[in-house]
């Protein structure tokens, strides 16, 4: 008996030691890392509530009207100003009877990245279930453009950009295995099932130009159209893929970003704004040590818990601006306490001096004077 007691006591003590360690160090484990040189200005933005949840992406039509946003229940909404507010513009599925404003219903679709074709007025939509779709200037039911490449289904179309001179567009299929509903599994599991696709609108041919990516989330073209940048959220890396010129067909690391990236948008001057779902923490670093760790967490924890932990228990707003030439970080802006912005998914700077922000989980968009960002030191 004394022998077994000696053997069991240390084993029995392990849970106790772990519990004590967690109690004292938990906040340190999940607390987001501080970013040097950040500007705490995002809390100054104006909030525009939505009759829906999750305006993940924004765009403006060729007449400058909008923004247009996609929400959880599959609708595309258009902002008509303070007096008229938001109006329904389009939707990606005719099956509307069971659609929920709070939860994603696969049959209703989930519009993510939005891009207007400025010449035609067509709105192109990356739907997280159906593929890439488009709807005409009058709105209504969107039609399918592409949902397959190289004989493989497009599972998780995420963000896209259009080269109107070449009549092609590029988009991310964040996973060739999972739909939007498994977004956190794609992110944490470590599986490299994402790819970047080029689609020729004349020949209707789709081609993979980069694959084996760990959750490629945002994507946009450079100002001259010579390269595409894609945000590999699972590695905090932005890749540059050359599509024109002597380097065409090659790719390289363009930038490293201190957080979980969502969409990326080109600014009027040719730089890029990157939206961060959250900053890096010890918890996220450990989660990405090995796919086995991430897969264990997915099996053990609920998605809401995972979101809570990766945000450090405090949803917040972060965005990073990088040089369109070198990938160097130029600006970092935050709402550290999440008093105004949470779960930022896209940053859209316009040439009228306004910067718009979307959110993949929140029922609002925000708008901020660019001067607030650039005048602060």
Question: Which labels suit this protein?
Answer:
5-stranded mixed beta sheet; 6 helices; membrane; Strictosidine synthase conserved region domain-containing protein; Neuraminidase; transmembrane helix; 6-blade_b-propeller_TolB-like; 39% strand; 18% helix; 377 residues; globular; Strictosidine_synth_cons-reg; alpha+beta; disordered N terminus
Task: Please characterize this protein's 3D structure.
By secondary structure, this protein is α+β, with helices and mostly antiparallel strands. Helices cover 18% and strands 39% of the residues. A hairpin with a 4-residue loop joins β14 and β15 (168-173). Mean pLDDT is 89; it is low at 1-23.
Number of strands: 28
Across the major sheet, the strand order is 1-25-24-23-22
Largest sheet: 5 strands, mixed
What name does CATH use for the topology of the domain at 53-315?
Neuraminidase
Specify the helix fraction band: 10-25%
Assess the beta-strand content as a share of residues. Answer: 35-45%
Q: Quick one: CATH class of the domain at 53-315?
A: Mainly Beta
* Class of secondary structure makeup: alpha+beta
- Name of the CATH homologous superfamily of the domain at 53-315: TolB, C-terminal domain
CATH architecture of the domain at 53-315: 6 Propeller
With helices defined by DSSP (H or I, 4 residues minimum), what is the helix count?
6
> So what's the overall shape?
globular
Report the span from N to C terminus.
69 Å
Mean pLDDT: 89
Low-confidence stretches: 1-23
- Gyration radius (Cα, Å) is 21 Å
